[in-house]
Specification:
Elements: E1 6-10, H1 14-25, E2 29-33, E3 45-48, E4 51-54, H2 63-72, E5 83-85, E6 90-93, E7 99-102, H3 106-116, H4 120-143, H5 150-153, H6 159-164, H7 171-175, H8 182-187, H9 208-215, E8 219-221, H10 226-238, E9 242-244, E10 249-254, E11 259-264, E12 269-270, E13 274-277, H11 281-288, H12 292-299, E14 306-314, E15 324-327, H13 332-340, E16 351-354, E17 369-377, H14 388-407, H15 412-415, E18 416-422, H16 424-431, E19 463-465, H17 476-511
Parallel strand pairs: 1-2, 1-13, 2-9, 6-15, 13-19
Antiparallel strand pairs: 3-4, 5-8, 6-7, 10-11, 11-12, 14-17, 14-18, 15-16, 16-17
The chain binds flavin-adenine dinucleotide (FAD).
Flavin-adenine dinucleotide binds near residues 36, 56, 194 and 479.
């Protein structure tokens, strides 16, 4: 019997786990090496004193993409996840006192929008219809497929689609076609922040996010987002994947055309037929591979923002805080300039609060609360003075002040039992995210599709990538698509490679 092909995956983020499971199902002998003590990467959890926090992702979007992954691994998603739809999806708070509840309830949306601006409901319907188009075209023609060349990406068939997707228009400016009120434009563009992007920079294509939230829903798995990781890891193990934790890969040993082995901290070398880098792609080029030129080029690309996170265990509940709450800065535009141009914390920061115990009581002890606060900030930038302690203190004060002003939550500070803080340095140290950019490489026009770093190394033909900083991009469902596309590419190319090897051996044998 032919020996199994071996695959070594560097990183047990959702992209690494899904790729591992898919390859194992295709008969590969797969090992995953993870630097930290458990799987999940950014999709992780913290449990302390009975409080359970999601570390990063809190929004379960595009459930059909998750379902496809479970199915590809021979399972049914509904046997593993108890999903609850969150509706209203968010409460949105504006500096001037306006509140909106984004909901799939069309009647309620109509009443709220018409109160802010006459005719805005019609604009909303047209906006969602455009989002629907963007979603369908993107998924089918750009996000859900591999591109072999620039010509294929900019083919005669694709070019008109790029225009239909408004890929060269800016998202915020494009909402002006649907709404006049600046607050409504903000309410339908802040979602770009999930991709770590400014709506003043993001392509108008991203109205697909609002469409998918309202049409397909925002969901939450009982037990927390980490259920996705726990169940996918267990399924991968059942398929034979071996996970090795607390083991950072120090470097990749290469010859001219291939990666020969992964060198661990203790100098052990693990070899395999193929390698898949799930750790952040710019970090792999920068820290694990020898080629400095490409690493430097990647370093100069645009990166997403970072975040300051507060995880608060609270000895009281605040029912006025909903499952998802968004607080938008009064000076919306300037706040993005501060984050993306100056790599700092805006004077008036926007922020997001997650209170999972509203949907899942077990997330906090009886009568208490588990609060996660995400404040977007600039990524690490050594060319500037970035006083993180000061920024963290200012962010914390802003959260207390706005909660007091807009929700009448005046005593939170006294009821915080413990606080855990994450900041850009933490994202860098814990997960090796280049520049501490929480969402990886940015998704501007020049860094998507074929223009994004590809999922196979140009030179080392047995080194593939799956994860947020390669094609198609960041966000859990998109990274699941990355795992699918990378696996498809491996299966096609390694198949071809073997055929070539066989043909070559036959030729050599004939010549002898
Ligand atoms: C604060 C925050 C909020 C988010 N919110 C959402 C959301 O609501 N919904 C959503 O869909 N997405 C959200 N995202 C995005 C989502 O979390 C990411 O896109 C996704 O988790 C990335 O997965 P990945 O597998 O590409 O990478 P990662 O999760 O980064 O996994 C890579 C793994 O590689 C490991 N590694 C690194 N270096 C090495 C090494 N040398 N050796 C071995 N292992 C190594 C890391 O420890 C890590 O476990 C959020 C992200 C953040 C940070």
């Amino acid at each position: 019997m032919k020996p199994k092909l071996t695959a070594l995956i560097i990183g047990a983020g959702i992209g690494g786990i899904a790729t591992a499971g898919r390859l194992a199902r295709q008969g590969y002998d797969v090992t995953v090496i993870e630097k930290n003590e458990k799987p999940g990467g950014r999709c992780n959890q913290i449990i302390r004193d009975g409080h359970r926090f999601d570390l990063g992702p809190t929004l379960f979007l595009m459930p059909e993409v998750f379902a496809e992954t479970y199915a590809a691994l021979g399972e049914r998603m509904e046997d593993h996840l108890d999903l609850r739809r969150i509706d209203p999806t968010y409460k949105v708070y504006f500096e001037d006192g306006l509140q909106l509840q984004l909901t799939a309830d069309i009647g309620k949306m109509q009443a709220q929008l018409e109160q802010v601006e006459k005719g805005a409901f019609g604009g909303f319907l047209r906006y969602i219809a455009e989002g629907n188009q963007h979603y369908k075209i993107s998924l089918e023609k750009f996000v859900g497929r591999n591109f072999k060349s620039l010509l294929e990406y900019f083919s005669l068939g694709n070019l008109p689609l790029l225009f239909r997707l408004k890929a060269l228009k800016k998202h915020f400016a494009n909402t002006g076609k649907f709404f006049k009120d600046e607050r409504l434009k903000a309410a339908f563009t802040f979602q770009n922040m999930y991709l770590g992007l400014s709506p003043y920079d993001a392509p108008a294509t991203y109205s697909l996010l609002q469409y998918t939230e309202l049409a397909d829903g925002v969901w939450y798995p009982i037990g927390g987002m980490y259920r996705v990781i726990e169940t996918l890891t267990a399924i991968a193990e059942k398929l034979g994947v071996k996970f090795i934790y607390n083991t950072p890969v120090k470097k990749l040993d290469t010859d001219r055309k291939r990666v020969k082995g992964a060198v661990l901290e203790d100098e052990r070398v693990l070899s395999a037929d193929i390698f898949v880098g799930n750790a952040d792609l710019p970090y792999i080029y920068n820290s694990l591979l020898p080629d400095r030129k490409t690493a430097q080029k990647l370093d100069q690309k645009a990166y997403t923002c970072s975040t300051i996170m507060f995880y608060w265990g609270v000895d009281k509940t605040y029912p006025q805080i909903a499952h998802h709450n968004v607080f938008l800065a009064g000076d919306y535009k300037t706040s993005f300039e501060k984050i993306f141009d100056e790599h700092s914390l805006p004077e008036e920061p926007s922020f997001y609060i997650h209170a999972p115990a509203r949907t899942d009581r077990a997330a906090a002890p009886e009568g208490q609360d588990t609060l996660y606060v995400l404040v977007p900030v600039g990524h690490l930038d050594p060319s500037r003075t970035q006083d993180w302690d000061k920024m963290i203190e200012r962010a914390r004060r802003t959260v207390f002040e706005r909660l007091a002003k807009e929700m009448d939550v005046t005593d939170l500070e006294e009821h915080i039992k413990f606080e855990i803080v994450y900041q850009p340095d933490t994202w860098l140290e814990r997960f090796n995210l280049q520049k501490g950019a929480a969402f990886g490489l940015s998704h501007n026009f020049w860094q998507v599709g074929y223009l994004r770093p590809q999922n196979r190394h140009n030179l080392y033909k047995n080194l593939y990538f799956a994860g947020a900083s390669t094609h198609p991009g960041t966000g859990l469902p998109i990274v699941l698509l990355s795992a699918k596309l990378t696996t498809e590419r491996i299966l096609t190319e390694v198949g071809q490679y073997n055929e070539r090897q066989t043909a070559q051996s036959a030729l050599t044998a004939a010549q002898v």
